[in-house]
Structures are given as structure tokens and as C-alpha cells.
Amino acid sequence: MGNPYGWRCWTCWGYFGTKLARQHHTTLTGHEPPVFECNKCSHYFGSEATQFKHMEDMNHFAFDCCRCSLTWPTEDQLTSHQHEKHNYCAECDRVFMSYNNLKQHLHSRRHLGQSIGCPFCGSCWVTAAGMTHHLESGACPKASKVNRDTLYKFVRSKDPGGVFTKNLVGYQGSTYYEANEQSYNPYRGGYQCYLCHSLFSSLQGLTQHLNSPTHQQPLYHCPNRITCDKEFKSLASIINHLESESCGFVRFEKVQRGFQDLLNMGRQIKFQG
Q1: Whether the Cβ atoms of residue 220 and residue 166 lie closer than 8 Å to each other
Q2: How far apart are CA 273 and CA 271, in angstroms?
Q3: 188: helix, coil or strand?
Q4: Count of alpha carbons within 13 Å of 40, Cβ hemisphere only?
Q5: How many structural domains are present in the chain?
Q6: Same domain, 22 and 117
């Protein structure tokens, strides 16, 4: 329905020159405005469907994009539009060079804080991948026996269907290496890895390298077996892959919730897109 005279009171049928004047009237009298009224103009309608159709045709939704002329029915839809079409963070009023840069920003401490807590020492992390690396590397002061191998065995027990763990028959754990002076290469002036020939300034650095996942077998695979065939040598690396949303299998937020489920030993782990 058109409303050429201004904003109408649905109770007394009076017209007002501005929406603010109508609001003063309804506040003083207890009257009501039309139920199905356009968010941008004085048109009102007999049903929600015709109201929505008008606002869609006229671009009269309540939430305006500050980067273009489009309007949206909900704040969530506006936020998604600004992220995907403009690489824009409204909260920080920043435009990013790419959508991936924006995602990294949205997943940073600035927006997420440190919400993932270590179940043993209480240290907090921004992402599930960071928390997992803390445990896999044996860095937790209150869980010295938790490492890459113990986590794999635990996760495997919670994922019997092999959604993202590899079924390594007879797996006994990673081999431990300790470098000695024979690994010193006088021609290169450092301790050399005999597998990849990387050079380290100390025996400790070489030993850490040898016992890292670098030369170990993959323990995990991406659950998106249809379009992604990537394999991973650590739990932190597969979680980082999923958190990045690079293969589009699952949203970042679901990975965070899935990690919390991982710490609940009464549940099986399921990542569903």
C-alpha cells in the first residue's frame, strides 16, 4: 500500500510528516505503527511477504553496507557480504588485500582472544592448532608424557572409522634420534641432517629437528577425501589445515568446537561440514 501523506498511525489512522513525529505520537498515546512497514520509506503492507518483496525490490532493508549501496535483512547477512565481497572488517573498520588475509585477522587474538585452554596446565591459546602443538611438542609442564605419539593413539581410539586418522597397523610410535659429533660437517661449519642435509648450529638443534614430524610418516589425512588428498604428520597440522578453511570442508568455528570434543573422552570425534 502506498502512503503519500507520510507515516501512518495504525491505531488512529493519523498521518505524520516524519517518522520521528509519528514515534513521538505513539509514545505519548500508546498507539501502534503498522505491523508490516518498510524499514526505509513510509509504505506499509498487508502481509510480511509483500513487505519483504517491496524491501527486496527497492533495496530498503534495515542494514546498510558502508562499502556499497546494498542493504540486507539481518546483521549476519550484512557481515557475510562485507567479508566476502569487500574483505572488510566493520568492527575494526579495515579493508584487507584478500579474503584469506581477512580470515586470518578474524581468527586472530584481536577477535577471538585466547579461548582454548590446555586441560593440564591451563595455558590459553587463540586456536586449536596452537593448543595442539603445545601438547604434541611436549611443552606442557604438567603433561610431560603427552606428545605426538600419545595424542595420535588417543585420537585414533576416538576415530575408529578413520575419518581423519590413518590406520597404521602395528604402529608403535616415532623413532627417537639423538645426534652426535659425527654429524658435524666441517666443510659447511655445522651439524648436518643426513636425511635432508639441513644445517644446524648445535647438536641440540639437530636432535630437535630429527625428532620433529619433519621426517616422520603421516598420521592423519584430510576428511574431505573427495577433493582433498592431503596428509599430515601431526595433529596440529591437520587442525591448522581445517581451521584455514582452505579445502572448504568445515568452518573454523566447527573446528574449534570439535577440538573441545576431542578433550571429552566420552565422545567420538566427528568433523562435519
Answers
A1: yes
A2: 7
A3: coil
A4: 17
A5: 3
A6: no
Q: What is the pLDDT along the chain (273 residues), one digit of tens a residue?
A: 555 568 899 999 888 988 899 999 999 999 999 999 998 899 999 899 999 999 999 999 999 999 999 999 998 899 899 999 999 988 888 898 988 888 878 776 666 655 677 888 888 887 788 888 888 888 888 888 888 888 888 888 888 888 889 888 777 777 778 889 999 999 999 999 988 899 999 989 888 888 888 888 899 999 888 889 899 999 999 988 888 777 878 777 777 777 666 665 433 444 444
| Contacts of range 194-197, beta carbons closer than 8 Å, 24 or more positions apart | none
Q: Name the CA radius of gyration of the chain, rounded.
A: 29
> Do 120 and 242 belong to one domain?
yes
**Residue 44: CA count within 13 A, CB half-sphere:** 19
Cell numbers linked to 231: 596428509
The answer to whether the CB of 245 falls within 8 A of the CB of 252 is yes
Name the residue range of residue 11's domain: 1-60
Q: Is 214 exposed, middle or buried (0-12, 13-18, 19+ CB in 10 A)?
A: middle
pTM of the predicted model as reported, rounded to 2 decimal places: 0.58
Q: How distant, in Å, are the alpha carbons of 8, 33, 87 from that of 13? A: 6, 9, 46
* Contacting residues for 174 by C-beta, under 8 A, at least 6 apart: 148, 149, 211, 216
- Please report whether residue 161 resides in a domain: yes
Q: Is 71 helix (H, G, I), strand (E, B) or coil?
A: strand
